[in-house]
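In the design runs reported in the main text, the only information available to the sequence generator was the tokenized backbone. The following block is the verbatim input for one such run; it is reproduced so that readers can re-run the procedure and compare outputs position by position.
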């Protein structure tokens, strides 16, 4: 996992370890690791006269190594792509031996300009990690500016946590996927999900996957996804006594085909189509009945428009719609309440005495509307639902 921080000097500083995370030295004495630091300007180019690297030395959980002398680990420095030569000085222990530092600079008379496309790579190799599980740090100071510290994790000896992936990684809107990963020691796992709900609003959730489980490959199913989603899986592990705990994280993305989203003002300069397939709800009086009080209820799962036309047969004909501005599980006040009473429903009345008459009204997703009976048998009626999307509409009653 490669992570970045920004310094006040105008450079990005990336740190990666091998293994990732580093492993505390165990009984086998194999706690050896590498640390690579990549430095690049935040602008296209910037001058870099020198870089000072400092690591903490000692035997505590906050220290990296007990051996920070000039012969205790290797140092190398280069540009990622070009051949400009840079030099790393021998590391020097502080007077209290609590830190070890060395300086990197370009060779004499060489160009001191760094580019964003060709970062400076500084590598500490064969560092002997101390025996304590914990969180330590690497400090980077560029051009003698204020130093930036980057945290580095030291996990228990032999700890392996890697290969988080989603199968499938591309899903249809409203479908879930399965995450899998490799974990070889007991750990408490938390899954953090950042995405969008079915209405297009930003959504974040955290849930505990396992507590103490381990295995070569573990899996977990996600929630239903409605847009591109970011997943971070964090393992909490500690030393054998349970005193010092660290957190290690993996991350992945899952992509959603035709995802739900929310937008502000939208300008479309090309051809677009937002309406789904129109649906005929009623094409004759037989479909609606003639009892004005016998209503059929419809609940759409996407925003849409109801379009209705009525033609009387020489006699006054009328049909009434009740349109709720709240979901069906909310209380709906009587549309006949006195004026000024806050309403959660609208009454839409369409009348005809022989002529053709027409009305339309909007219904939000999750709300509902009712269609009453036509008061005259010989009338002509057409009621259509035009969804503003690919949703459906469900009748009941």
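Verbatim output:
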């Amino acid at each position: 996992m490669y992570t970045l921080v920004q310094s006040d000097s105008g450079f990005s500083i990336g740190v990666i370890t091998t293994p990732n995370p580093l492993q505390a030295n165990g009984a086998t004495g194999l706690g050896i690791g590498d640390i690579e630091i990549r430095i690049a300007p935040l602008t296209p180019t910037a001058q870099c006269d020198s870089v000072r690297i400092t690591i903490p030395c000692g035997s505590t959980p906050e220290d990296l190594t007990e051996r920070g002398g000039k012969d205790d680990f290797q140092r190398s420095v280069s540009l990622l792509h070009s051949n400009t030569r840079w030099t790393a000085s021998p590391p020097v222990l502080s007077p209290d031996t609590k830190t070890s530092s060395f300086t990197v600079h370009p060779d004499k008379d060489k160009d001191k300009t760094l580019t964003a496309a060709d970062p400076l790579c500084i590598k500490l190799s064969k560092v002997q990690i101390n025996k304590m599980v914990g969180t330590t740090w690497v400090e980077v100071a560029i051009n003698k500016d204020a130093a930036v510290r980057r945290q580095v994790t030291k996990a228990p000896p032999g700890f392996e946590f890697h290969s988080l992936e989603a199968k499938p990684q591309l899903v249809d809107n409203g479908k879930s996927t399965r995450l899998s990963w490799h974990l070889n020691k007991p750990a408490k796992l938390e899954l953090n999900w950042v995405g969008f709900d079915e209405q297009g609003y930003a959504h974040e959730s955290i849930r505990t996957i396992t507590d103490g489980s381990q295995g070569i490959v573990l899996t977990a199913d996600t929630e239903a996804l409605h847009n591109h989603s970011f997943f971070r899986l964090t393992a909490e592990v500690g030393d054998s006594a349970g005193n010092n705990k660290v957190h290690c994280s993996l991350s992945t993305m899952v992509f959603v085909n035709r995802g739900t989203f929310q937008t502000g003002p939208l300008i479309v300069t090309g051809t677009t189509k937002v309406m789904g397939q129109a649906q005929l709800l009623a094409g004759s009086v037989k479909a609606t009945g003639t009892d004005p009080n016998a209503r059929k209820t419809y609940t759409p799962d996407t925003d849409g428009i109801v379009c209705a036309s009525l033609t009387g047969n020489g006699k006054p004909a009328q049909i009434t719609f009740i349109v709720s501005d709240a979901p069906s599980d909310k209380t709906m006040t009587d549309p006949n309440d006195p004026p000024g009473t806050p309403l959660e429903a609208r009454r839409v009345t369409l009348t005809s005495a022989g002529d053709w008459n027409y009305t339309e009204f909007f219904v939000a997703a999750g709300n509902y509307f009712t269609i009453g009976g036509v008061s005259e048998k010989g009338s002509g009626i057409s009621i259509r639902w035009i969804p503003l999307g690919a949703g459906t509409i469900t009748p009941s009653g």
